[in-house]
Amino acid sequence: MNDDNLNTIVIDDSVYETGLTKKYANRKIYQPVDHKKVIAFIPGLIQKVHVKVGDKVKRGDKLLVLEAMKMQNSVVAPLDGKIVIVPNEGTLVKKNELLVELE
Amino acid sequence: MSIKQKLLDLFRRTEKVFSGGGSKAIEKQAAMGKLTARERLKALLDMDSFHEYDLFVEHKCADFGMDKKQLHADGVITGTGSISGHPVCIFAQDFTVAGGSLGLMHARKITKIMDHSVKMGIPLIGINDSGGARIQEGVNSLAGYGEIFYRNTLASGVIPQISVILGPCAGGAVYSPALTDFVFVVDKISKMFITGPEVIKTVLGEEISMEDLGGAKVQTEITGNAHFFAKNEMECFEQIKKLVSFIPWNNKKKADPIRPKSPKSNYDVDNIIPIDPKKPYDIRDVIKSICDDSDFFEIQENWAANIVIGFARLNGETVGIVGNQPLVLAGVLDVDSSDKAARFIRYCDAFNIPLITLVDLPGYLPGVDQEHAGVIRHGAKILYAYSEATVPKITVILRKAYGGGYIAMCSRHLGADFVFAWPTAEIAVMGPEGAANIIFKAEISGADNPDEMRKLKVQEYTEKFANPYIAAANGHVDSIINPSETREFLIHAITISSNKSELRANRKHGIPPF
């Protein structure tokens, strides 16, 4: 949809006066991926947690089981590190919610 | 039985089926603010033109007590009729009969009228108002959907296919409309989605209303699944009638011309565009200043509004118009606007409708979201669609035509038959600011006053390159025309192209970047 207030967008260093679409105005600004943070790729239930704070894990080690869409998804460590944050078993998590943080 | 008795018997049987799902169900339909399937046919088609077939079709399901249930006409009305004299095949699902649910015979009635429309070479209109698959019929109702999708696909580009969503259209059912050419939706009545709010809530824990998930506004503003939004059913039918007037009966015909009319005098083509290429204006004013009676029938008005598409007439003949919209996102090409334009171009090409392209864009939209959404793959669709099209292709460059955007917007290089440019056109590899910053980088950074030097160099570049004459000197543009001559040039070009034929290498089909 047109925005009534004229905004500007910049293309190749030129500044254009123009309206924006809702989609453009609401677009998510890109955040670089932080591999130390394991986030929920799907909303679901933390069915089991294999690790606790302070544990040292290797890349590929099982961290927890996230149950979603009737499937038990095994979440593994993306890299070697020490566990800083873990969720409690039985928690319901939303999509993109932080599950585990590594150090 | 005497003949009289037999006639009475027929009358009674007919009346019974005409009662649909009965008075209670009809009251419920009205309470939802919806017309019944029969009322809809009456409102859409020419008076007394509707002829119904398969009135007495019945389902054959015997499971779950279905053998004791009679579903009148099996929940769908099929037939032929006309819209302003144009013949059409039509089906309308009857929500009052078992929620318009689709069983095998219901589907067979639809596929039968679809086969008719292809054989007769006339448009197909489907009015969708159905709770979905008739669960009791199990896999047979899935078979029914599949048979409809198959025919939608085979009929695509052969006859115009129009879908009207006047109720729920959920799950697999939405894929028939998605395969057709134009989808009409009505505020608060149309609901389209693959998985409904309840499933989403149970599985994902996300709460959303049906309206916010897949209502008419969502489908015409966010997803682009639907093409026309109406406030009520009667307005929707008027839109359908208008669309039918613009398109041909089938791919072997041209759209019927009407009596030519001049554009309305309040659209002054000479005074619409600001000379500063960074200032916006409404491209639709330019379209209305050129086309017959200033009557532009816009498609997907509220989705990807940075490109404008629609039908108009020039000298009485239907043309398809694609124009960048400087009023929205400076008229850039992006994922959605490429999808929108590409599909429309292919529609026009399939149905012998000449394409007019009005160019004023700074290029493709920069951004991580665009790149990650696949702007390469989506942007390629517009290149593919224009290059593939063999209908007359006429391009007018109004102002900016920079870089990849210039190529994509039906440039000579993609096979445009005629390329005209206004004297205000700037055909260049990019805007003067960007170009000067690259070409004169050393001079600018080495100057005592870089800002002054930049200004100077931008001005130098603008004077030298921001015009249509270099493109014209290379033959990429055929004529530099006065804006007030545009209509006349376009009409002449269309007349000249009326016998255009372009042979292509024989192939099964191309592989567009879907």
Structure, explained:
The complex is a heterodimer of chains A (103) and B (514). With 103 residues, chain A is mostly beta strands. Chain A has 2 domains: 1-30, no CATH class; 37-102, Beta Barrel (OB fold (Dihydrolipoamide Acetyltransferase, E2P)). Chain A is built from 1 helix and 10 strands. In chain A, the strands form 3 sheets. Chain A has a 4-stranded antiparallel beta sheet, with no helix packed on it. In chain A, strand 1 (7-11) and strand 2 (14-18) form a beta hairpin. Chain A is elongated. The mean pLDDT of chain A is 89. Chain B is of the alpha/beta class. Chain B folds into 3 domains: 3-246, Alpha-Beta Complex (2-enoyl-CoA Hydratase, Chain A, domain 1); 270-430 and 468-499, 2-enoyl-CoA Hydratase, Chain A, domain 1 (Alpha-Beta Complex), CATH 3.90.226.10; 432-465, no CATH class. In chain B, 39% of the residues lie in helices and 17% in strands. Chain B contains 20 helices and 17 strands. In chain B, the strands form 3 sheets. In chain B, strands 10, 11, 12, 13, 14, 15, 16 and 17 form an 8-stranded mixed beta sheet that branches. A 7-stranded mixed beta sheet of chain B has the order 1-2-3-4-5-7-9, with helices on both faces. A two-stranded parallel sheet of chain B has the order 6-8. In chain B, helix 15 links the parallel strand 14 and strand 15. In chain B, helix 4 packs parallel to helix 5, helix 12 (335-350) runs parallel beside helix 14 and helix 16 crosses helix 18 (450-465). The mean pLDDT of chain B is 96. Chains A and B meet through strand 2 and helix 1 of A and helix 13 and helix 16 of B.
